[in-house]
Design a protein that fits this description.
Layout (H helix, E strand, L loop, with lengths): L3 H11 L3 H20 L6 H27 L1
Helix pairs in contact: 1-3, 2-3
């Protein structure tokens, strides 16, 4: 069963919503920067999850680019 982020990205790709994917990417990147700048607690688990979500979003953007290039 696909994760929530995979379903969201698939929907944006299907709807050809590049702006939505870009906003999703910027949000995750801001979260990653914020968590990486904090100290006093081990944030490695949420940082790893956010990095995985960023990779899923990047793959969605690549799929969208490939679809638009093929058209």
């Amino acid at each position: 069963m696909p994760s929530a982020i995979e379903q969201i990205v698939d929907t944006y790709v299907r709807l050809k919503n590049r702006r939505g994917l870009d906003q999703l990417m910027m949000h995750r990147q801001r979260l990653a920067v914020d968590l990486k700048s904090r100290s006093g607690y081990d944030f490695s688990l949420p940082i790893g999850q956010i990095d995985a979500e960023i990779a899923i979003i990047e793959a969605g953007i690549s799929r969208l680019k490939a679809d638009s290039a093929a058209a």
